[in-house]
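4.2 Preliminary Data

To establish feasibility before requesting continued support, the project team ran the inverse folding procedure on a target of 248 residues. The structure was first converted into the token representation described in Section 3, and no sequence information of any kind was made available to the design step. The complete token record follows.
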């Protein structure tokens, strides 16, 4: 079950709200229409907290409300990937890897800018044969991508049971948390997750002593996230950002 909050806001008000909201409320998606915005959340508690802070009423979302998934169009991402909804039958362009865009009640379907930024950076930094840990895997789309790029081993973890179920369809999945992994177990750690969560788990990610591919935050939040890190590559899209970084 998903939950949503409808907000009656102008575009300018929404941009200001997004900057404040992105620190505190993990969302599943946003729909814009002539009346404003409908924001989707995985839990009733998060939706109610958001509604209380920003106005609106939290309400359950019927499955029929997710018909917007049917409007997804295939996307070319970076030089290697072809993101396509699983119900579409367009042929994969030559030289590209097909990744299924999944309409689901967990994050990571493929349409969000942060997911696409991660895919673009993965093309640059991942080397065949490496071991990758995907923290907060969501649908498992990034785990599927690193497998397609030649990773030798992929571990994925998420605290949401629905995410684990979906990710199992894509890649070998380990359900747990980043603090259960030992230092040196991975050659690359991928984490596309909400900044509020990132603040909590970043010490555990650093403990793994591996390069980090991080996303899920806005451009103006980069200084906070990367304080004390060496940033080797950075990509931006529509106000969102992803970085490839290591500890000094």
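Position-by-position output of the design step:
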């Amino acid at each position: 079950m998903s939950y949503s909050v409808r907000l009656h806001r102008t575009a300018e008000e929404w941009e200001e709200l997004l900057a404040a909201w992105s620190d505190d409320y993990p969302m599943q998606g946003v729909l814009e229409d002539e009346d404003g915005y409908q924001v989707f959340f995985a839990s009733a508690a998060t939706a109610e907290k958001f509604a209380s802070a920003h106005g609106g009423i939290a309400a359950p979302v019927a499955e029929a409300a997710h018909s917007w998934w049917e409007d997804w169009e295939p996307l070319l991402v970076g030089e290697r990937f072809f993101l396509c909804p699983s119900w579409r039958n367009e042929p994969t362009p030559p030289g590209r890897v097909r990744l299924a865009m999944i309409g689901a009640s967990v994050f990571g379907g493929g349409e969000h800018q942060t997911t696409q930024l991660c895919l673009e950076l993965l093309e640059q930094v991942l080397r065949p044969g490496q071991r990758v840990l995907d923290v907060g895997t969501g649908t498992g789309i990034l785990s599927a991508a690193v497998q397609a790029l030649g990773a030798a081993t992929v571990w994925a973890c998420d605290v949401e049971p629905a995410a684990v179920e979906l990710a199992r369809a894509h890649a070998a999945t380990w359900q747990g948390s980043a603090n259960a992994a030992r230092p040196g177990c991975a050659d690359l750690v991928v984490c596309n997750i909400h900044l509020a969560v990132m603040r909590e788990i970043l010490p555990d990610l650093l403990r793994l002593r591996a390069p980090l591919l991080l996303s899920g935050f806005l451009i103006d939040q980069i200084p906070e996230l990367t304080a004390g890190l060496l940033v080797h590559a950075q990509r931006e899209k529509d106000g969102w950002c992803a970085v490839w970084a290591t500890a000094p």
